[in-house]
Amino acid sequence: MAEGTRMKDLSAKIDNIFSIMDQREECFLAAMNQRDAKNITAEPAASLHMEVTPAHLLTEETACNQESHVPIKSVRVDFPKFEGDDVLNWIFKAEQYFTYYHIPDPDRLELASIHFDGPVVPWYQMLTKTCMVSTWTELVTALEEDYGPTDYESPEFSLFRITQQESVTTYYHQFTALANRVNGVSSKALIACFIGGLKEDIQRDIIPLKPLTLPKAASLARLYEKKIYCYFTC
């Protein structure tokens, strides 16, 4: 009787243990399922975060790259003053300044006139009183007429009759100053004109070489000028 009771008690304990184990297993499975559900919910958000963040960074990086390509005027350029000398060079420098700082046409006249000095000031005052200039283009025309070379209206004539009187370098500077005021002349014609104005002993050596550019022709002319100089002095 006692033995049967002990067996029943043991069986009950075993059943209780299995019941507890089943409950724990169910709790464990429930916890696992809950964790899996959270992971599934979190994955799209994580994926979205992974997609958004790089795009955001890429946008900032792109913006930085774009900003780095924006031309920054880190070098200050002063507007040239004009006192009445070498007007063509002054006009060229002024237009370079306008381009560099993107000065609009309506502001160019006032900016240029502020930098007049010496006798140019009363000259410009007279122009403003008579309302002869109202734009930068009109000012350029007036400057060229009153302060430009006497043969301004026909620079082609001066270009085709200029000859070397001093060094090749001096002649080249004079030639290019005139050539810059001439339009419609081909590079080939300019080269021929330049060579034609060289001294005969230099010209004779340059012609057979047939230089293809004006700077090349000038470089060869300097080379032969030096060669001739050494021949007579060395």
- How much helical structure, as a percent, in the residues? over 70%
Number of strands: 0
Q: What is the number of helical segments per DSSP (H or I, 4+ residues)?
A: 10
Give, in order, the helices and strands.
HHHHHHHHHH
Strand content: under 5%
Mean of pLDDT = 79
Would you give an account of this structure?
This protein is mostly helical. Among the domains are: 87-147, no CATH class; 155-233. The chain contains 10 helices and no strands. α8 runs parallel beside α10 and α9 (200-206) crosses α10 (214-233). The longest helix has 68 residues, at 2-69. It is elongated. The N and C termini lie far apart (144 Å).
Provide a compact summary of the structure.
With 234 residues, this protein is an all-alpha fold. It is built from ten helices and no strands.
